[in-house]
Amino acid sequence: MPQKIANITEFLLVGFPDDWILRKLYTALFFLIYLTALMGNLLVVTLTTVDQHLQAPMYFFLKNLSLIDMCYISIIVPKFIMNSLTNSHSISFLGCASQVFLVIFFSGTEFALLIVMSYDRYVAICHPLHYETIMNRGACVQMVTASWLSGCAYGSIHVAGTFSVNFCGSNIVHQFFCDIPSLLTLACSGEHILEYAFIVASCCFAFVCFILMVVSYFHIFSSVLRILSTQGRYKTVSTCMPHLTVVTLFLSSGFMAYLGSASKSPSSVNLFMSVLYCLLPPTLNPVIYSFRNRNMKVALSKIFCGEMASK
């Protein structure tokens, strides 16, 4: 029977193989993707801040989404790069708890914000005459604030549930960052009931929120079908496609990653899904919104044309 670890002070992150060449390749790849994600999201934040044509509620929400993505990827990747360069696998107990909290905090905030963005599309398409009244500046700020606060509460609950357990047998986390499923595999038998209860409750709540998102899009597509013009239908649907793509990417990668990371010895496929979950959404979100949005492309061309003209 595994013995309880007394006064645990650190965990060992051993998600990737110890081969020196492979580890350096992973590090270089992570670094390049990290820079790409930072530059893309920073560009979105800059465009939606300085361009006067990008001051609608949708772009205000998009700015917050990019801020979340920059923070989220910065929690995981720099620590992995530092450990790889120093040939160290350790993370302190407090550092691990902080990483769990921040990952859940920003993931929960992003999910809440995606729900808010679906409501924005619903109002814009189903109630266009009342859009400016419903989605006024004060209401948008309140919804974004509620998203950040809900993410903070979500993270606090789960970090408290996860680290209230005693750990038995080993402090080796088979993952390249601290996540809840991997940590719970180290918990003593019968001591993770509280966190499992939190997970079930939060999943039920998240499912209800997801249903609200589905209902919003049901009404949206019902309104689209009532548009007589084919061009009008295409134009209306195209305003929803970036959001639908981002939601699909976020939920599908998250579901597959957390389903696989609950294994005590996750396969390379499960580890790969975790990498996708951590890196793909923050990297691709600005690309999806920039290439699918005409106003974003115009604002982007203004910046680059202005830079070319100045030269």
TrEMBL record:
Gene3D superfamilies: Rhodopsin 7-helix transmembrane proteins (1.20.1070.10)
InterPro entries for this protein: GPCR_Rhodpsn, GPCR_Rhodpsn_7TM, Olfact_rcpt, Olfactory_GPCR
Location in or out of the cell: Cell membrane
Membrane-protein topology: Multi-pass membrane protein
Keywords of the record: Cell membrane, G-protein coupled receptor, Membrane, Olfaction, Receptor, Sensory transduction, Transducer, Transmembrane, Transmembrane helix
Signal peptide feature range: none
Transmembrane segments: 25-47, 59-81, 93-119, 196-220, 241-259, 271-291
Taxonomic superkingdom: Eukaryota
Pfam family membership, one: 7tm_4
GO MF annotation list: G protein-coupled receptor activity; olfactory receptor activity
GO CC, alphabetical: plasma membrane
SUPFAM superfamilies documented for this protein: Family A G protein-coupled receptor-like
Domain G-protein coupled receptors family 1 profile: start-end pairs: 40-289
Annotated function: Odorant receptor.
Family to which the UniProt record says this protein belongs: Belongs to the G-protein coupled receptor 1 family.
Protein's name according to its UniProt entry: Olfactory receptor
Originating organism: Loxodonta africana (African elephant)
Biological classification of the source: Eukaryota, Metazoa, Chordata, Craniata, Vertebrata
Gene from which this protein is expressed: LOC100657616
